[in-house]
Specification:
- By secondary structure, this protein is mainly beta.
- The chain has a single domain, classed as Immunoglobulin-like (Sandwich).
- The protein has a 5-stranded antiparallel sheet with strand order 2-3-4-12-6, with no helix packed on it. Strands 10-11-5-13-14 form a 5-stranded antiparallel sheet, with no helix packed on it.
- The radius of gyration is 18 Å and the shape is globular.
Length: about 200
């Protein structure tokens, strides 16, 4: 069972969905942001082991005319990419099988008690690519790159893709996160993330 949305009454979290244009289709980006371990409206959030976690789940079709697909980054350097999925591949001839098996224990707060509670967020998915392969390329602390590659570079060939990345930050700031859809040009899309949780 997939659990990315906390129970009713949970504080200091939010979700949003974005649609980014890509050749012959769109890329859907599902974003889930949680303040954990400490309350962001109380003093010394990082000193009390407070961490903001953000999950990006991306899905769509790629018009296969490039091998670099999605670049994700925080130009301010506050967010660190902790995990990139799928991270394993099974190959059977020209079929490539991928699985996303994600879980993370979070310490969250709700409106019914001053004490935090534990929630394990999770998400599972699997998919098959034919000829084309998917992997995450080289990354930096605040950078993630998803790559499709293979022997098929037919400009009419389209390939589905899915990915999930987990990011962390200790800074309670407004962050202009950037996503570049490389097959749609290099211009990044700026995504404002409210890690202050003032209006959330």
């Amino acid at each position: 069972m997939d659990v990315l949305v906390p129970p009713l009454g949970t504080l200091f979290w939010y979700t949003e969905t974005l649609t980014l244009p890509a050749p012959r289709g769109n890329i859907s980006v599902f974003i889930y942001t949680y303040a954990t371990n400490a309350k962001p409206n109380e003093p010394d959030f990082p000193g009390n082991n407070g961490v903001v976690y953000t999950v990006f789940r991306c899905t769509g079709m790629n018009h296969f005319n490039t091998n670099d697909l999605i670049h994700m980054s925080d130009p301010g350097g506050n967010m660190i990419c902790e995990r990139q999925l799928p991270d394993k591949e099974e190959r059977y001839g020209d079929l490539n099988i991928y699985a996303i098996d994600f879980s993370e224990d979070l310490c969250l707060f709700n409106s019914f008690s001053d004490k935090p509670y534990k929630l394990t967020i999770s998400y599972t998915d699997s998919f098959i690519l034919k000829v084309v392969r998917q992997r995450f390329g080289s990354t930096g602390a605040s950078f993630s790159k998803l790559t499709l590659f293979g022997d098929c570079f037919d400009t009419d060939y389209e390939s589905p893709f899915r990915s999930l990345t987990l990011w962390s930050s200790k800074a309670l700031v407004l962050t202009n996160f950037e996503i570049s859809v490389k097959s749609h040009g290099d211009r990044p899309y700026s995504i404002p993330l409210d890690h202050t949780f003032i209006n959330k």
